[in-house]
Amino acid sequence: MALPTPNPALSQVPAGYKYGWHDSEMKPLHVMKKGLNAEIVEEISRIKGEPQWMTDRRLKAYRHFEERPLPTWGGDLGQIDFQDIYYYVTATDKAVQSWDDVPDYIRRTYDRLGIPEAEKKYLAGVGGQYDSEVVYHNIRADLEKQGVIFLGTDQALVEHEDIVREYFGSVIPANDNKLAALNTAVWSGGSFIYVPPGVHVELPLQAYFRINTENMGQFERTLIIADEGSSIHYVEGCTAPSYSTASLHSAVVEIIVKRGARVRYTTIQNWSHNVFNLVTKRAVAHEDAVMEWVDGNLGSHLTMKYPSIYLVGERAHGEVLSIAFAGSGQHQDAGGKIIHAAPNTTSLITSKSISHGTGRTSYRGLVKVYPGAKRSKSTVRCDALILSDEARSDTYPYMEIDEEEVTIGHEATVSKVGSEQLFYLMSRGLTENEAAAMIVNGFIEPIVKELPMEYAVEMNRLIQLQMEGAVG
Amino acid sequence: MSGAPSAVVVRPDPAAFSTDAAAALAVSRGEPDWLTDARRSRAARYLGTPWPTGSEEEWRRTPLGDLPTAAILDEGVTTEVSGLDPDSAARGVVFANLADAVRTHPDLVRRYLADATAGPATHAAFWELAHAAWTAGTFLYVPAGVRVDLVLRARTVLSRADGAAFPLTMVVAEDGAKVTLLEEFASPDGGAAWFGGMVDIRVGREAKVRYASLQLLGDGAWRVSSQRVVVGADAQVTTLNAEIGSLVTKLGLDLKMAGTGGTSRLLGVLAAGDHQRIDINSLQDLAASHTTSDLLYLSALYERARAAFYGVTRVRPEAKQTSSYQECRNLLLSPNAGAEPIPVLEIETNDILRCAHGATAGAIDPIQLFYAQTRGLSADEAERMIVRGFFERAVADIGSEPIRARVLAALAGRIGQEAA
Hints:
The complex is a heterodimer. Chain A is an alpha/beta fold. In chain A, 24% of the residues lie in helices and 34% in strands. At the A-B interface, strand 22 and strand 23 of A face strand 21 and strand 22 of B.
């Protein structure tokens, strides 16, 4: 039994695409003109009232951006017109502390997402990003008591300039790559978290990001510092309205995990299908630290994202759990990088990818072991599921091993949903779609079970939505 | 045999060769006009084909800036062939060094040389250069239905350590033919040679070919080579590359599963020490349905040796019901050795039976070493035994005892003799 090609309606955003809509009443307050030059970079910094050193960094980063070529590997970036993008938009003048102070039209946006009621009840703190500015922050009182700082990065620059200055760009320098340079030049919003030594943040901290101005780029900048012996779980979820012209999301996330600390960073990305999602995420894990990236990529036109971990202290441990789902017209080029730079460090990369329609998933990863990183161990495991004749799956696992006393392994398999599996499930009364969705849900289960409950539910819903018409 | 170099010099510079130089080589060798013309046109193709820039994924790890400048060896490189039984010869099998075959079977050689344009994409320029500048090589033609049971052997030797040589190996197995060829390549230590040998293997429908290459070049040699294998319907091919010599090896494997039902095994054993660098790129191009292609490359790296392996399995949309596997394992036997195994999959259909890969790098399992020592072996003996066992898997898979024995004997030069 051959699997037929999916419903062509899925090749674009599905008609019932719940998270794709546009609030026509919403009028951004500051909309600068499209395009990018040194004056616009300076203007962004001026509007924000930033200190001179940040203005200088932005300008220097802008020069790097101009000099660096676009990556020629991965996906096709040629369609991005950097001069056809708004680099700074803000919907409210400043972040507010209470949900009641959030303007009505923005609250409506969140209501449509079905999130804020749950947030009010359950979430520890919320930094929602509506356009380029953090508009809402609600830090639970006990977090403040523990000395945890959870702010928009812009506000952190005002209130904690010394910490921001110390760590900003220390993990991902402005000239790391063209898109990190762009982010450094025009960044706006994002989250800043500092967890003092020994403090354990029990509930996940969450932030929602949205894009809501046509052709508007989103360049948030997130910086997380987990001081010695502390722990934190940060969750980032993205949904976006759908527009016909391409949008660019290019974030930078820097994480410092100090001795004995533990950080988990979870992302569920569901950008609308016109977004270029080009994100640089990197963490540094010191002695005995644990860093985990849980990275789910469902939406966007093209995602290029390889969360990386530098294991620089003895016995540091890093994990990347990556899941990618590509439907028609989508390319998910995702993976992870682990750099072993100290002895007795361990790492695990697990990647699960699913492609259907004309979608393409690519796992792209690197395991590098520097000389002296003795007794390092790394395992990379990639599984891909191809659901249609025209779908495509690639695996590009790079390994650079410069130390003898190590154990490094990589395995990958690519398979399709077997007709026997489908037949069996259908004989038990499931429709073909339900059967295929069940197989896919089983396939990604090892990752979904790592998500906070409400995200696991959302993930399963999104997969089901994406799977409609994939088989049948 | 003194082997004076010819007047034609090649440089690590794409523009430093010419159609006239190619023609001069033909004239000095007293070749027929058609071959002079062929060399000229191949030189023109070479000049029109860009060199790798170093930014290509397959060339990132081997910059060509230090490729030696060398005079092309003419009489200084020889190919000797042996093993053809009179019965096979009587049935039309041609097995000769390429220059002899040009004289004895000009039509046959001309046909397959003319057909050998557009070589493996990653080595396209060097493929053309070799076809313009070859001075030695092996020609093997097995007519349809003829089965050669004994192992055929060819040995190509450079008499100088500092020359350039571009031997061509052409293997044509017509439909239903069967043949096994073991080739050896050797040169003296102590100079900077440029070895650019190319191998072109065509396997007809239901034919069966085993090809083994044993590389024992001198310690200053640069090997920039490629092997193209085109596998017809229901044919079976096994290749084995034993890379032992040379300073730098950049070998490209280009396998095309062109006919339905073909089967291929690509085997490799790499043993390197000192400052040796081995960089292999492979393409397993599954372009027909019901094909099977497995690759197994094993390396043992001593001292400051480094091995890179960039292997691509490409399953094309029309290649339904295929099965493929890539396995790359690296034993690191010194703190300064390094490995970069990169097995890539590009799958363009969902109708596959199996497609997977595995790659590992690491030291010998200390428990294995300990166990061997409890049985009375010294640490060195234990290591040698384990490395031999590690290689045995690939070497035995060629399915020919004479080849297995020869390759293991040659490997002993690097990994040491078996414990008494």
